[in-house]
Design the sequence.
């Protein structure tokens, strides 16, 4: 599976091409009306099937001090299933399937199993934000504020600040910044304020490849024989 994922990832890079450095800062700037931007998000969501991307995850305390940094490969499908294969030194797989989170540590032959209805403070489900959500979903679930435009890597991005409508959800995630690539209308970056943990989590995406034919086994919760399953309380 590990070799399959690597082959698939680098095949996608070859397919989409490696663009040269673009002078985005010198390019034209577009001022988006919020409703128009959400319509673009709707169009992306309408035919969304899958996404694969490289992601860097940086956790900081609310004072700005870095707590951790990791990189990996992300996969999401239309059903909202999420898989994140974290790179070395501690290779592990995060899998979100319906209301369950699995964290598999292959070197230890161990998988942790979390019920998301009990572990509401887990941030992994929010990685779907901007990939599988329509503009209507965002309007229904969040108070929205435009943050304007900025460049993230080689992406000219439009920013939205999302504040959950429901108080219970705000107790878990106080707010999010969603920076959307104006070329693909998919996330270039998410910044999540994890209220319950007192952290800010920044996820930055590169080499985003959309609607690939992903192997369904990527989202399987069947682990190698001999894996110890631990249900987390």
Sequence:
């Amino acid at each position: 599976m590990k070799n399959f994922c690597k082959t698939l990832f680098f095949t996608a890079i070859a397919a989409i091409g490696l663009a040269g450095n673009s002078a985005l800062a010198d390019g034209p700037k577009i001022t988006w009306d919020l409703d128009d931007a959400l319509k673009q998000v709707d169009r992306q969501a309408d035919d969304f099937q899958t996404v694969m991307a490289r992601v860097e995850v940086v956790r900081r305390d609310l004072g700005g001090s870095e707590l951790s940094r990791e990189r990996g490969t992300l996969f999401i499908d239309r059903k909202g299933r999420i898989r994140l294969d974290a790179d070395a030194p501690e290779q592990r797989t995060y899998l979100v399937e319906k209301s369950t989170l699995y964290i598999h540590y292959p070197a230890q032959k161990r998988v942790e199993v979390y019920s998301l209805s009990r572990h509401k403070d887990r941030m992994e489900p929010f990685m779907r934000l901007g990939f599988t959500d329509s503009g209507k979903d965002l309007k229904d679930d969040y108070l929205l504020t435009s943050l304007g435009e900025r460049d993230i890597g080689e992406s000219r991005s439009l920013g939205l600040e999302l504040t959950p409508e429901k108080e219970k959800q705000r107790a878990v995630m106080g707010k999010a910044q969603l920076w959307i690539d104006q070329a693909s209308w998919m996330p270039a970056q998410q910044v999540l304020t994890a209220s319950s943990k007192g952290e800010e989590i920044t996820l930055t995406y590169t080499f985003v490849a959309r609607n690939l034919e992903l192997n369904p086994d990527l989202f399987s919760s069947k682990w190698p024989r001999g894996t110890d399953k631990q249900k987390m309380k």
Q: What stands out?
A: Confidence is low (pLDDT under 50) at residues 6-28. The CA atoms of residues 146 and 160 lie 5 Å apart.
